[in-house]
Amino acid sequence: ADEGMWLPMFIKRLNQADMQKKGLKLTAEEIYDVNNASLKDAVVQLGGFCTGEFVSSQGLLLTNHHCGYDAIQSNSTPQDNILQNGFYAATKADEKKNPGLFVDILVRMEDVTGKMLEGITAATPEAERMATIQKRQRETAEAAKENGQYVAYVRDMFGGNEYYLFIYQRFGDVRLVGAPPEAVGKFGGDTDNWMWPRHTGDFSMFRVYADKNNKPTAGTQEGNVPYVPKKHLPVAMQGIQEGDFAMVFGFPGRTQRFLPAAGLQLTLDESNPARIKLRDTRLKIWKADMDKNPDLRLQYASKYANIANYWKYFIGQNEGMNRLKTVDTKKAEEVALAQWIAQDPARQQYAEALPAIEEAYKTVRQYNLSSQYVNEGAFGTEIVTLAARMMPLAGALKSGDKGAISKATEALREPVKDYFKDYSAPTDQKVFAALMNLYMQDVPAAQQPDVFATVKKQYGGSMSKCADYVFSNSFLTSEAKVNAFLANPSLAKLEADPAYKTYQSVYSNYVQNIAPKVQAAQAGLARANRLYVAALREKNSQKVYSPDANSTIRLSYGTVRSYNGRDAVNYNYKTTAQGILEKEDPTNPEFVVPAKELALIKAKDFGRYADKDGNLPVGFITDNDITGGNSGSPVINGRGELIGLAFDGNWEAMTGDLAYDPELKRCINVDIRYVLWCVEKLGGAKHLVDEMTLQNNGPNPG
Ligand code: ARG
Question: Which EC numbers does the record give (predicted)?
Fold first, then answer.
């Protein structure tokens, strides 16, 4: 299909005819309607980072295993390791709480561009424009919250050429209902991650709870009951075929399809290599310790998976940018755009855009490594992130305000408990030594924090000696010591702590010497980008652009579709359980298949989930345009039935967030029949399948 993560409110105007041609049978109102139940009411944003969908009238929610991973790990102990063994709640009383986890359900969205830009002209100074719009964004969102009843925000689209208001209900009681064993939910591990063909049962189940009036609560509350959604998705049992219509509804996080060539170039030759190097270093240290100690393996499982996911993403993105010549393509587009601008005096308003972008990127490039090494280096070290969390308390201690001090202290209790539950100081010490050393070596001398001068003077330049000192003397290495500090907090003690001092040095250097320069360049870039995007849309006025993903609700549509990966290689559109047997490797933890699953597959015990050839369907691909944040999104057929869950993208199109290639980009999905088979046959939890609305209305439209 074509590129596009569309705002559901515009489906009727922008895409309906094309969608119908591809097989959509629903009306625009059945997809998005503010007043009546529509598909949008079945789709939720999970925890701000993933998507989920209701599949029962009792608030039962499906999402990916990798989206539920942190909740699954947090509810695991070495004695009751549900991450490893899987888990299905036998009754609602067995469902597991997840403090802090929430879902947002869209109430409505609104185009507020006119309101944001009223009175602003091309002559309005940039700083004034920014301040005015920010104030209006805040006020508009505040009014829409209706005294805290809703969550609301205004997001800009197309580089600040348009603005939209989003209003949600936020439910803070989301309980874990089920998950397959990790060997199923993460089958193929990092080796298969970002790749097709795939055999991962990437799903987990939650339930949303509300108060007696079906209204959201801030956290888990006594007396809460399963939420009754306005709409839940029926499940299609008939399965999929190449060419079937497919749409994906969800919350894609971030794309940068309007990133200029200079930005792409910087990503390619500096940002991605730095991120890859720092993550590679951190992952190797973690893995060595995880392999030695099963308890530590469980503690670091979720952190490891998160860092590894985008480590491989950055590698794939760079490989793809080189292979597909992404920078050259963008450069050629910019040359054509510059010519178009020069052709007509009326386009003079855009003339400053491209030169200003070049100029701004010179500055951004000068400070880019510092930014990367602060984020992925210093903050790649856990103790530095804990030190950073002490900042508000330090502020309160400075003010001497007793109320503020006790508030800041209390606010740290839960985070500190969470932090130490999954923390190993000896492991983190190795990470500190390695990452801070790379930071010291790789960042330009003039941009280094003072702490490195101390390392040179006091430890002869040895970061590992410095790490020894920090970890032997900091109170931030142990929960007992941090709690003792919180019982009697003192500014002097905090400021004398070597880990806190390290953080302070990195942070103040960044705030004083790096951030102001980068921010000034960014302000120039904001204006230039806005003009650049406006010019591009005017030049290509026959093309309908969709705005870059920004964690707001979107719909993408396409079809079930195979692809040619490279010369002579064609990838089929679906996988089956046969492939699980082919990949099985009891000696490789990423490809272990649980004994029960092996037995069921070998016996072809697929029940009602078998396809017409008697195989068990596992995964399939569509040409929907998605990105991270869409994980867990429902894949819906032309009648509005659930056919799968989106969970990944393919290796050949890892540049997809920067440039869309319709021939190569695919969305990787787990077939809903595999999900249900895992729950019922493998997990023995038929009661959960029975909650859903299974139906077979014949072949999918398309
Ligand atoms: N690449 C997937 C995504 O970001 C996440 C897959 C998680 N699986 C894993 N093996 N780390 O959507």
Answer: 3.4.14.-
pLDDT category of residue 98 using cuts at 50, 70 and 90: very high
103-111 and 151-157 beta bridge pairing: unpaired
Mutate which of 631, 665, 670 for ligand 1? The one with the most ligand atoms within 8 Å of its CB, which is 631
Q: What is the mean pLDDT of residues 31-45?
A: 97
Tokens found for residue 339: 């010519």
Mean pLDDT on 679-687: 98
The span from the first CA to the last CA of the chain, in angstroms, equals: 13
β-partners of residue 248 are: 556, 635
The residue type found at 338 is: A
| Measured distance CA(197)–CA(616) in Å, rounded | 15
Q: What is the pLDDT of residue 1?
A: 57
Cβ neighbours, 10 Å, residue 292:
10
Residue 72 has which token pair? 């699954």
Please work out whether the CB of residue 238 comes within 6 Å of at least one atom of ligand 1.
no
This complex has an ipTM of 0.94
Question: Does residue 255's CB lie within 6 angstroms of at least one atom of ligand 1?
Answer: no
**What DSSP character marks residue 36?**
S
Pairing of strands 634-636, 642-649: antiparallel
Mean pLDDT, residues 75-86: 97
Q: What is the mean pLDDT of residues 191-208?
A: 98
Q: Is the predicted pLDDT of residue 266 greater than 80, yes or no?
A: yes
What is the mean predicted confidence (pLDDT) over 452-472? 97
Listing DSSP states for 164-190 in one string gives: EEEEEEEE--EEEEEE--HHHHTTTHH
pLDDT in tens, 510-566: 999 999 999 999 989 999 999 999 999 999 999 999 999 999 999 999 999 999 999
Distance, in Å, from the CA atom of 626 to the CA atom of 255, rounded to the nearest integer, reads: 9
Q: Indicate whether residue 395 lines ligand 1 (CB < 6 A).
A: no
Q: Which residues contact 71 (CB under 8 A, 6 or more apart)?
A: 96, 98, 101, 176, 204, 206
Closest-CA residue to 556 (of 610, 507, 623, 621): 623
**Residue 2 predicted with pLDDT over 80:** no
The secondary structure of 123-162 as a DSSP string is: TS-HHHHHHHHHHHHHHHHHHHTTTTTSEEEEEEEGGGTE
- Nearest Cα neighbor of 388 from 511, 484, 286 is 511
CB atoms within 10 A of CB 593: 21
Domains of the chain: 8-102+172-255+548-695 (2.40.10.120), 106-171 (no CATH), 261-530 (no CATH)
Contacting residues for 665 by C-beta, under 8 A, at least 6 apart: 623, 625, 649, 650, 652, 653, 656
Report which DSSP code applies to 682. Answer: I
Q: Measured in whole angstroms, how far is the alpha carbon of residue 50 from the centre of its chain?
A: 6
For residue 646, give the 3-state DSSP assignment.
strand
Looking at the DSSP bridge assignments, the partners of residue 574 are 620
Contacts of 161 (CB under 8 A, 6+ apart): 113, 530, 533, 534, 537
Closest CA to 32 of 110, 99, 89, 129: 110
DSSP classification of residue 447: G
Residue nearest to atom 4 of ligand 1 (CA): 628
Alpha helices in 325-352 (DSSP H): 326-342
Which helix (H) or strand (E) segment is 54 a member of? strand 50-54
42 Cβ contact partners less than 8 Å away, ≥ 6 residues apart? 53, 54, 229, 230, 231, 232, 233, 634
**DSSP notation for 525-575:** HHHHHHHHHHHHHHHTTTS-PPPPP-SS-EEEEEEB--EEEETTEEE-SEE
Report the nearest atom of ligand 1 relative to the CA of 190: 10
Measure the CA–CA gap between 665 and 625, rounded to whole angstroms.
Answer: 8
Report how far ligand 1's centroid is from the alpha carbon of 466 (Å): 35
Any atom of ligand 1 within 6 Å of the Cβ of 590 = no
Contacts of 348 (CB under 8 A, 6+ apart): 341
Please tell me the distance from the alpha carbon of residue 654 to that of residue 322, in angstroms, as a whole number: 11
Query: Residues 25-52: what's their mean pLDDT?
Result: 97
